[in-house]
Amino acid sequence: MATQLSEKTIQTVKSTVPVLAEHGEAITTHFYQRMFADHPELKNIFNMTNQKAGRQPRALANAVYAAAQHIDNLEAILPTVDQIAEKHRSLNVKPEHYPIVGEYLLVAIKEVLGDAATDDIIEAWGEAYGAIADVFIQVEQEKYNKAKEQEGGWLGYRDFTVVKKVKESDVITSFYLEPKDGGIIPPFRPGQYITAQVSLPDSEYTQLRQYSLSDAPGKGYYRISVKREDGSEEQPDGVVSTFLHEQVNEGDILPITAPAGEFYLNEESTNPVVFISGGVGLTPMMSMLNRLVDQDSDRDVYFVHASQNGEVHAFKGDIAQFEEQASSVQSKVVYSDPHPSDADYDKKGHIDLEWLKAVVPYDAEFYFCGPEGFMRTVNAALNDWGVPEGQVHYEFFGPELSLQ
Ligand SMILES: NC(=O)C1=CN([C@@H]2O[C@H](COP(=O)(O)OP(=O)(O)OC[C@H]3O[C@@H](n4cnc5c(N)ncnc54)[C@H](OP(=O)(O)O)[C@@H]3O)[C@@H](O)[C@H]2O)C=CC1
One Pfam family of this protein, by short name (predicted)? Predict the structure, then answer.
């Protein structure tokens, strides 16, 4: 499927892998700075908060590193390409963006490597980048076609009206969205997300944010549930979420792209399901749980949620209701910092393996999502428990980071 590269190009690219590993992030940080300086219009597409936090350069460095390792067999990176391409489709990344990225990546490699960047290396990387870009463009094209051709589907952004706004906790608010054109909307897989295009009053560029859909499909609306971040280093995404919480109300318009994502409920399996979420990471799990309840599923469901305390714990009422309504649903709550008024929780502190073993079955499909440290803890716990990889599903929101 990819352009044929010469043996020399392949060898040159492969021999730069160790150098890339050393300078990968410096190269991509440099690259973004130069590219945005010359092409500020691209700020409409990239999440600038991820740039500031260094997550985007790290993710690109990882992707480039992986591609370089497999340049003679790009098929091997298709699973990674697929996930990134899914995000790109959701962000409306177009083929014409690739040559711009390629140009600045080469400039950055040259600048960071200095004298070590020979003409041969730059030429080989130019060709290799072209081959990698072709793979992405092709995979993304198929995804654009599917998004458009499905019933109720569309390309790019479609205006949705906020028809209902509901406070779910002190920090999380839900927005119910229906298409302004009154048309139908496609179903989605529980766990998928949309991209919202937000225009802040005093910003020149639009801001794109991806939010998991938090209700089941097939209801005529999409629901997102947004945490108001405080803009600190740990929660840098303050501007957009604060704007949504404070300024976006019923009747307002939010342009969104069609649902996307590779993290979703395996509806084929009949195994028990264990959802493990931290904070606002519970949103995709809510969609999956709602789906199972809507379908009267007889799979055993364990909804394990970690939160600081009862005030920031969203969807408490819904989950309690599901638990009462369906004997197959069990909820387990972990509070890291419970308030004296909090009575209804199962563990104080953090989730750990010993406790998990006592409350959920091993022979289950596990889904987890939450802050980075939480994801590492849960991933390590499931590894130590020996849960087979195929039964473990997770999603990082934002650029892909390593769980190790
Ligand atoms: N589809 C997706 O992939 C989605 C992903 N997310 C992600 O979920 C995250 C949620 O963040 P937020 O609501 O701020 O979460 P919080 O910071 O509120 O954390 C939630 C809970 O996890 C606990 N926790 C933190 N670190 C660890 C650890 N190492 N081991 C065990 N428990 C831990 C916290 O404890 P403590 O109080 O001690 O820190 C707290 O009780 C965001 O990073 C967001 O990007 C969100 C929505 C969707």
Answer: Globin
Residue 319's nearest CA partner among 311, 309, 329 is 329
Domain count, the chain: 3
Nearest protein Cα to ligand 1, atom 24: 374
Active site residue 140: yes
**Residue 210 and residue 339 in one domain:** no
Q: Which listed residue (25, 32, 86, 98) is catalytic? A: 98
Whether 171 is in a domain gets the answer: yes
Ligand 1: nearest atom to the Cα of 193: 1
Q: Which atom of ligand 1 is nearest to the CA of 394?
A: 3
pTM over 0.95: no
Q: 265 lies in a domain?
A: no
User: Does the annotation place 279 within a ligand binding site?
Assistant: yes
Atom of ligand 1 lying closest to residue 227 CA: 13
Residue 272 CB–ligand 1 contact under 6 Å: no
Give the range of the structural domain holding residue 185, as residue numbers without chain letter.
Answer: 158-256
Q: Check pocket membership of 336 for ligand 1, CB cut-off 6 A.
A: yes
- Cα(71)–Cα(62) distance, integer angstroms: 14
Give pLDDT tens digits along the chain (404 positions): 556 789 999 999 888 878 777 887 788 888 888 888 999 888 888 777 776 666 777 777 777 777 878 888 888 888 888 888 999 999 998 999 899 988 988 888 888 888 888 899 999 989 998 988 998 999 999 999 999 999 999 999 999 999 999 999 999 999 999 999 999 999 999 999 999 999 998 888 889 999 999 999 999 999 999 999 876 665 557 889 999 999 999 999 999 999 999 999 999 999 999 999 999 999 999 999 999 999 999 999 999 999 999 999 999 999 999 999 888 999 999 999 999 999 999 999 999 999 999 999 999 999 999 999 999 999 999 999 999 999 999 987 655 555 55
End-to-end CA distance of the chain: 32
Q: Say yes or no: CB of residue 285 within 6 Å of ligand 1.
A: no
Tell me whether residue 402 is in a domain. Answer: no
What CATH number does residue 321 fall under? Answer: 3.40.50.80
The crossing angle, in degrees rounded to 10, of helices 119-149 and 7-15 is 100
Write down which residue in 149, 166, 185 finishes a domain. Answer: 149
In a domain, 401, yes or no: no
**Could you give the CA distance from residue 73 to residue 90 in angstroms, rounded to a whole number?**
27
DSSP class per residue in 139-172? HHHHHHHHHHHSTT--SS-EEEEEEEEEE-SSSE
End-of-domain residue from the set 256, 289, 319: 256
Question: Residue 211 sits in a domain of what CATH number?
Answer: 2.40.30.10
